[in-house]
């Protein structure tokens, strides 16, 4: 077995450019997450598409928790993720047959089309069609970009490089919050500007999909061994890449014997990475993070901020999100995956429980909103929660599934992970405003309960993958884990 220490590499300008350009897929995804909550809080948007919600908002004292409860309004946000769910399986096939690079090109094309149609929408269904096209782009991008980053990164920096995807997600959310804060004052078409600017990161991703190299793994897997060897030398910046090349070639030879990767994924020996990959996505959503990111302006209005103040509070949480993701880039390959996840569970549990307790005591359905001090403390607790998520379950939810599947089931397995993420993102996006209406403050205890379960999962079932070469996970990780080794064939 070849050791990772034998894999020679140096970081070149070209490979860093490849990392950054590919990571714009994360920025596009993050912008889509962040923009929808601010747009749905804009009066001009509500007047045009959701006049009933606007009227209810004007009489918010009727019920502080229910003024935005509207299924079609939630469908505007959630339709993107339902489309991404189905697109991820198609993207898996495209990724395997044609490579990571063309899949990213397709993603950017759908992003551009979706941004154009949604920003020019004349009615609600045109708006949702635009979101669906964006969702197809998300499905393709979220399938290809994390795989691309994991396969192109040197083993000793794989965690940090892969987290560039999540870093760009957080930057996208931050920019979306800034844009919404500015366009909220552009009457009556500020919301159109917000949606149209989604085309900017899409253009960068489109250019990037042309400039970047295909991954050596994808080239070798598809029989282009000479091109794969050349690409490996190019991204590693050294001539002697034979040890890593032989490791990839061995994994590719095994992968080519598998004609039906989705069928292979259902075998007992494939269950450990599949279960881990899917559960990470489920748990990532049930922290409550996207409920907060989608609807941060709505949430802050609910607890007493005016429209501008709520958008500004979203900018604050977006800043915390970006800075905390940088912590993960520094720590993931030093501290390891499990420790970051476990520490974050404690911090997120305290934050969600305290927010729930404050709202339960101080924010009644029909009474006045929180005091300025109390509302400010809620923003602080949200920042504390976002901070913990951003250096743990956010980036690692994408990193771990992208590095733990063997090559023969990698794109199929990651498609299950992406589609699981999109499905539960869809559920949370579609249900959160209704859940807040019916569960009121108890919704935060609901998420806190899930965080407790996640901590137990990370403690007992999640293996550490720090420093393990991506193509030897079976031998080094799964066959040595006290629980998962029972699933592995001899």
UniProtKB/TrEMBL annotation:
One protein family per Pfam: Sugar_tr
Source organism superkingdom: Eukaryota
Domain Major facilitator superfamily (MFS) profile: start-end pairs: 18-466
One GO CC term on file: membrane
Xref: SUPFAM superfamilies: MFS general substrate transporter
GO molecular function, one term: monosaccharide transmembrane transporter activity
Coarse class of the protein's main subcellular location: membrane
Keywords tagged on the record: Membrane, Sugar transport, Symport, Transmembrane, Transmembrane helix, Transport
Family stated for the protein in its record: Belongs to the major facilitator superfamily. Sugar transporter (TC 2.A.1.1) family.
Membrane topology recorded in Swiss-Prot or TrEMBL: Multi-pass membrane protein
UniProt keyword Membrane, yes or no: yes
Location of the protein in the cell: Membrane
Protein name per the record: Major facilitator superfamily (MFS) profile domain-containing protein
Keyword match DNA damage: no
Bilayer-crossing regions: 12-31, 72-91, 103-122, 128-149, 161-179, 191-212, 274-298, 310-332, 375-400, 412-433, 439-462
Native source organism of the sequence: Citrus x changshan-huyou
């Amino acid at each position: 077995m070849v050791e990772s220490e034998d894999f020679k590499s140096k970081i070149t300008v070209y490979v860093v450019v490849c990392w950054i350009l590919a990571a714009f897929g994360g920025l596009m995804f993050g912008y889509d997450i962040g923009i929808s909550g601010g747009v749905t809080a804009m009066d001009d948007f509500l007047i045009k598409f959701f006049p009933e919600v606007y009227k209810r908002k004007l009489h918010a004292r009727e019920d502080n928790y229910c003024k935005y409860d509207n299924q079609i309004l939630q469908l505007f946000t959630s339709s993107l993720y339902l489309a991404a769910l189905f697109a991820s399986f198609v993207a898996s096939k495209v990724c395997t047959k044609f490579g990571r690079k063309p899949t990213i090109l397709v993603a950017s094309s759908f992003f551009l089309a979706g941004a154009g149609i949604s920003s020019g929408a004349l009615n609600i269904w045109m708006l949702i069609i635009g979101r669906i096209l964006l969702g197809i782009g998300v499905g393709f991008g979220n399938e290809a970009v994390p795989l691309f980053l994991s396969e192109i990164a040197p083993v000793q920096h794989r965690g940090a490089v892969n987290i560039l995807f999540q870093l760009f997600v957080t930057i996208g959310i931050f920019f979306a919050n800034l844009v919404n804060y500015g366009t909220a004052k552009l009457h009556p078409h500020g919301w159109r500007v917000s949606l149209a600017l989604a085309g900017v990161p899409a253009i960068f991703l489109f250019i990037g999909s042309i400039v970047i190299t295909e991954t050596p793994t994808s080239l070798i897997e598809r029989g282009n061994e000479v091109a794969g060897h050349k690409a490996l030398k190019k991204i590693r910046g050294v001539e002697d890449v034979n040890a890593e090349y032989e490791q990839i070639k061995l994994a590719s030879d095994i992968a080519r014997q598998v004609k039906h990767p989705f069928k292979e994924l259902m075998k007992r020996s494939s269950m450990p990475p599949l279960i881990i990959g899917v559960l990470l996505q489920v748990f990532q959503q049930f922290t409550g993070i996207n409920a907060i990111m989608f609807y941060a302006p709505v949430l802050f209005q609910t607890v007493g901020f005016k429209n501008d103040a709520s958008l500004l509070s979203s900018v604050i949480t977006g800043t915390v999100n970006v800075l905390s993701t940088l912590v993960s880039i520094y720590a993931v390959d030093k501290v390891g995956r499990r420790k970051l996840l476990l520490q974050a569970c404690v911090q997120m549990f305290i934050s969600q429980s305290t927010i729930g307790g404050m709202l339960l005591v101080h924010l009644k359905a029909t009474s006045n909103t929180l005091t300025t001090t109390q509302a400010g403390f809620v923003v602080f607790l949200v920042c504390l929660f976002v901070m913990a998520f951003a250096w743990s379950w956010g980036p690692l939810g994408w990193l771990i599934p992208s590095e733990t599947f063997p090559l023969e089931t990698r794109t199929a397995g990651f498609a299950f992970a992406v589609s699981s993420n999109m499905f539960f993102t869809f559920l949370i996006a579609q249900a959160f405003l209704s859940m807040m209406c019916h569960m009121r403050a108890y919704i935060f205890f609901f998420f806190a309960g899930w965080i407790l379960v996640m901590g137990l999962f990370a403690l007992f079932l999640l293996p550490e993958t720090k420093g393990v070469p991506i193509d030897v996970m079976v031998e080094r990780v799964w066959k040595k884990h006290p629980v998962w080794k029972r699933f592995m064939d001899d």
